[in-house]
Specification:
Blueprint lengths: L1 H7 L5 H35 L15 H11 L10 H18 L8 E2 L9 E2 L8 H22 L3 H32 L4 H6 L4 E2 L3 E2 L9 H16 L11 H4 L9 H26 L13 H20 L7 H30 L2
Antiparallel strand pairs: 1-2, 3-4
Helix pairs in contact: 2-10, 2-11, 3-10, 4-5, 4-10, 5-6, 6-8, 6-12, 8-10, 8-12, 10-11
């Protein structure tokens, strides 16, 4: 028995153990990130509004998310009598499943042998795909089905309006999202996340990070703004939180949900924020590369960059008011899409002219 266990952790079998460890750690990290984001959102909003935020449960209120989870776990599962029972239960599962799967091709660090434990280095990601960007884009788009199904299956006018708004919002911003993404593909000449990140290693002029944010300036920066703005709209966050607009639709698509079904929607929203921020870091901010800093700490720099973008998410929610719905549609179709198209053409022309 001991020999069997020892052989499991020895080459070449330890590769499977390392891979399973990466999958397990990432799965747990994404779940924990939702609770951590809830805590920091409360603290950041309190700081911006000159309040204290959570203070009673645990040191500085750090155990408040756990208390919320326990509360939701023991709450009664309510379901409208006229709801489509199967679809009503399936909707939150779809939302959560897509947000976890979407993170699979996203790398969060360079290759490692885990201090020599492995014979060959392994990538810090679940799936290294040569079309990883396209896979994330496709899977993330499926998340809207969970929201639309929840809105329809609840048999509530508020929920239905929230689901319809989400689908219209997704269609409006998906095009600008794709155009900004195509800008990065043109610059890197690849759809592999790892190749896109590696193309951003090094510096321009000896001091400027070779990030796509600065490529063909200012067009790389414009692509970054378009991508991040569309990402905020895709995740239904303020100032684009129309699918759940409390002042208009009570809670929108999840009005009729309670207990752990509601918690699953809540968790999906925050994990989607993490996914969009992580993808943005890989596409525009050099991923785990930092100039003049060791590659061994790449995963740490990746987390720091992602945390900065997540802070901007929170900052936007508690700073900007929700725009009108017609303004949302106009921004997506009349502003962002034309600008993204022209920006893509400008970057393509720059790549051809200067061989970037």
């Amino acid at each position: 028995m001991l020999d069997a266990v020892t052989s499991l952790f020895s080459p070449p079998n330890n590769w499977w153990v390392a891979y399973a460890g990466i999958v397990g750690v990432l799965f747990l990290a994404l779940q924990i990130s939702a609770a951590v984001m809830v805590y920091f959102e409360r603290k950041v909003s309190a700081w911006m509004q000159q309040r204290y935020g959570p203070t009673l449960v645990g040191p500085a209120g750090t155990l408040q998310p756990i208390a919320d989870i326990v509360k939701l776990f023991f709450k009664e599962e309510l379901q409208p009598k006229a709801a489509a029972k199967l679809l009503f239960s399936l909707a939150p599962i779809i939302s959560v499943a897509t947000c976890f799967i979407a993170f699979a091709p996203v790398p969060f660090g360079g290759s490692t042998t885990f201090f020599g434990w492995l014979d060959e280095p392994i990538s810090l990601q679940v799936a290294d795909l040569n079309v990883g960007v396209l896979v994330v884009f496709a899977i993330a788009s499926l998340g809207v089905y969970g929201i639309v199904i929840a809105g329809w299956a609840s048999n509530s006018k508020y929920s239905l309006l929230g689901g319809l708004r989400s689908s219209a919002q997704m269609i409006s911003y998906e095009l600008a999202y794709g155009m900004a993404l195509a800008t990065v593909v043109v610059l890197a000449g690849s759809m592999s996340f790892r190749e896109i990140v590696d193309a951003q290693a090094g510096q321009w002029f000896g001091f400027l990070p070779k990030w796509n944010l600065f490529a063909v300036f200012p067009f790389g920066f414009i692509a970054f703004l378009l991508f991040f703005t569309a990402g905020v709209a895709e995740t239904n966050r303020a100032p684009f939180d129309f699918p759940e607009a409390e002042q208009e639709l009570v809670a929108g698509y999840h009005t009729e949900y309670s207990s752990m079904r509601f918690a699953m929607f809540f968790m999906a929203e925050y994990i989607n924020m993490v996914t969009v921020s992580a993808v943005t870091v890989n596409l525009f901010l050099g991923g785990w590369h930092m100039p003049f800093l060791p590659e061994s700490l790449g995963w740490l720099w990746f987390l720091m960059k992602t945390a900065v973008l997540l802070f901007i998410y929170l900052w936007l929610r508690w700073t900007l008011p929700r725009v009108r719905y017609d303004q949302l549609m106009s921004l997506g179709w009349k502003v962002m899409l034309p600008v993204a198209t022209l920006n893509l053409l400008a970057v393509a022309a720059g790549v051809i002219a200067f061989g970037l």
